[in-house]
Design brief:
It is built from eleven helices and eleven strands. By secondary structure, the chain is an alpha/beta fold.
């Protein structure tokens, strides 16, 4: 059963409401990260709590908000535009793929808002809150990235690598009232939603296979949900006292749909492959399995399948016909493995 309470659900839906697209551009200035202050406006990439942690994806120099245009610039004059919808484009070169379409993103947003994956959001939020509560506290002055020598500063940064619409990131931030968040993705339609997923979340267009546009040791918690893992970069940006939370499917995930729809099965070696991708950089700290029974309509089944790798490996026409033949509603198992990885 989901542990997302009705109050938390209302809070998540409320913070997902859009903000005005035109927001004042802040000029980056030194910020005292040891003394929390009230949030006076929704966070975006120009906010001091975020921009202090960002780095130029070209030269790795610090970034600051430009005063003449809506952009971030580094001392070497590399410039990165802020979209009207609130995210910053920190992509260099062509994206490896364009990600989900606007229609796919809209369907995914509706699916998540219906609570079908609350089992994942809740597990991430509870694990992140527990982890930060027990991690080392502040010690010493903060670095330029906002972190202290043995702690995370007053505004711990939560990064979601492959964030999609930012739904899971928003759930984690709702459980961490002093944290700020950054959603990274290559899909612009998803980032338009991620940029307004939570008042304390910013969003950036970035390829997580490349160097991440973040300072060393800048991140307290790094989320990775059904997304590729860049072990080298994850280790570089994660604070030594931080945690990487990785969510992967178990072999029971969507098992009721695999044969009837001809979906890809979860690789039996999935756990080993995840460990290999992080080997030498992280050590597994704990693993928990989270399961929920979903009751879905046919359209929701189509959305769910479209959120996974089978969407790229199954004939669309045959898949649509198989979904139409399903009895409605459909009962499906969601089963995921959440592993906490510690930096070595």
């Amino acid at each position: 059963m989901s542990t997302v309470t009705p109050a938390l659900r209302r809070r998540l839906l409320r913070v997902s409401a859009p903000y005005p697209s035109e927001q004042p551009v802040y000029t980056a200035q030194p910020v005292d990260t040891t003394r929390p202050t009230a949030l006076t406006r929704p966070v975006d990439a120009t906010h001091p709590w975020i921009v202090a942690r960002l780095r130029c994806p070209v030269c790795a120099e610090p970034l600051a908000a430009a005063t003449d245009i809506r952009a971030l610039r580094c001392p070497r004059r590399h410039s990165f535009d802020l979209a009207r919808q609130g995210y910053v484009n920190l992509l260099t070169g062509r994206a490896p793929h364009v990600g989900d379409t606007a229609e796919m993103v809209a369907a995914r947003a509706d699916f998540l808002a219906a609570g079908h994956y609350d089992v994942i959001s809740s597990a991430l939020a509870e694990t992140a809150a527990t982890w930060l509560a027990t991690a080392t506290g502040d010690a010493g002055p903060p670095t330029a990235s906002g972190a202290t020598a043995a702690g995370f500063g007053a505004y711990p940064l939560v990064v979601d690598a492959g964030a999609g619409t930012g739904w899971h990131l928003a759930a984690v931030l709702a459980a961490l009232p002093d944290a700020v968040g950054l959603a990274l993705d290559v899909a612009k339609p998803a980032l338009r939603r991620a940029a307004r997923a939570h008042p304390r979340a910013a969003a950036a267009l970035a390829d997580t296979w490349q160097r991440l546009p973040l300072a060393d040791r800048s991140t307290a918690v790094l989320l990775n949900v059904f997304a590729p893992r860049n072990g080298v970069e994850f280790r570089r940006v994660l604070h030594p006292a931080g945690a990487l939370l990785v969510v992967t499917p178990t072999d029971a995930h969507l098992a009721e749909l695999v044969d009837v729809l001809g979906l890809l099965r979860v690789d039996p070696a999935k756990t080993d492959r995840v460990a290999d991708s992080l080997a030498g950089h992280f050590t597994p700290e704990q693993t928990t399995v989270h399961t929920a029974r979903l009751t879905l309509g046919r359209a929701e089944v189509a959305t769910l399948v479209g959120m996974g790798p089978s969407a790229w490996h199954t004939d669309p026409g045959r898949l649509a016909a198989a979904i139409d033949a399903l009895p409605a509603p459909v009962t499906v198992t969601a089963s995921v493995r959440l592993t906490v990885w510690r930096p070595r």
